[in-house]
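Both lines are given unchanged directly below:

***
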Amino acid sequence: MPDIQNYTLNFGPQHPAAHGVLRLVLELDGEVVTRADPHIGMLHRGTEKLVETKTWVQALPYMDRLDYMSMMCSEHAYCLAVERMLGIEAPVRAQYIRVMFDEITRLLSHLLFIGSHGLDVGAMSMMLYAVREREDLVDCYEAVSGTRWHAAYYRPGGVYRDLPDSMPQYKESKWKNGARLKQLNEARSGSFLDFLQDFVSRFPKIVDDYETLLTDNRIWKQRLVDVGVVSPERALQLGCTGVMLRGSGFAWDLRKKQPYAVYDRLDFDIPVGATGDCYDRYLVRINEMRQSNRIIQQCIDWLRANPGPVICDNYKVAPPPRAGMKSNMEALIHHFKLCSEGIHVPEGEVYSAVENPKGEFGVYVVSDGANKPYRLKIRSGAYAHLAAIDELVRGHMIADVVAIIGNIDIIFGEIDR
């Protein structure tokens, strides 16, 4: 009889579970994977090089387009890096707004994870539920920044503007009218914080519904339990961060271990797993959504009670108020210099990291004293996780490869950059 030889299979980029731009070359022994070689770069846009030609503020929207499911978290890392080099700190109200939107972003990311991972594994209805909740949260993005996706809302020194006093309302149409229209607009009749409060009060019951659908579902557990196991020691060696590390039992979270903004003033827990398999990572994300909801509630309470400025009053970093610019020559000069030249950041280098929903997102910036970054390097959590995929899928079946890719929750904007 002839010897049975391994054969090679291209998994992606056309495969719906390959996130559109992942080519995974699998070596198979029958249907068992013996080796996986990820080929990346199909979404490479040269972000780190492009930023060198932009001013410090113009570079900020590029951060949104890296992990395009965790937009404001990426902005936060960049703003913290610039602020550290400038030696300034955002006003406390701006820091609370940033933390609140970081957690809204975490919910957006984890909701997409649970929906797309459900689709990958066969729980089709999960995406419909997840998108329903995401709509309310992207409305929050739109209310403060004018766009549902790439917000560019944070600024070095604070945030672009304060929270709005009203929310946009649905208008009558042939799809939305009568009692349905009244129900949709009920939560939108007050301020931004009233709208978000309504969501936060509803969300724990919604997460309970997700768990009813998935957590004890026999098929879900058969697909995830003991699949893609990473031991705690190996997770550290592979450079795993975020849920990939906490799922293996490490309670490592930058919000607790290296607090930034106002996380040290807030009460929340770090969910950790026990076995480091796909099921544990799913449970960690479910519990993270509950903790994010707690943090948002605390931010709402504080922001209601404490009005104040949302951007620093250093006019060499942030523009002066519009009214002052009309009557004050010095304010007009500051505005002109900021718009024509931008911020001049002192010489130096800094690394700033935040707890992105996908792991540690870091920005290493070098300044030569000019109005543009001299060099910018991005540390992506998902990049390290994709590098570990060969180890994760080895010995599993082809169907498990789909479950593992969905479970490590990779976004190629920040991998290919």
User: Anything to note?
Assistant: Residues 92-121 form the longest helix (30 residues). Residues 239 and 384 are 6 Å apart (CA to CA).
